Amino acid sequence: MLQVGMKAPDFTCQDQNGNIHTLSEYKGKKVILYFYPKDNTAGCTKQACAYSSMKEQFNEKGIEIIGVSKDSVNSHKKFEDKQNLTITLLSDEDLKMIQDYDVWHEKKMCGKTYMGVVRTTYVIDENGMIVFANDKVKAATDAQTMMNDL
To answer: Catalytic residue positions?
Structure first.
């Protein structure tokens, strides 16, 4: 996990609509950048829906919400449509951004070891600096926790 006080790595990724996003385009705004394992899974759906339902509140505070996973643009679009999501979802199929943000780690489930995305939330300030980092995220309460803390 990257540490508070570090410069956030720039990125170039497509969203669920095929639009290109870079961190530099958010200069002057705060960004909640959250990494999640997989579209349409229970925890990831709760997290995305909660951020979507609170998007206007975050925007009123000048905060943009961006979710990132290794799922494809097409998968993100289906996820957005199925769940009526209103937030930006970035596709990082080549894992560059995921690795740059140090959220690709060995995980264990049901006795199996595999590599995967560790659910992590970063807050990046208006100057591109990491001001908050958490890799012990509870999917169902992440959005509300971030609203309370910010």
So the answer is: 44
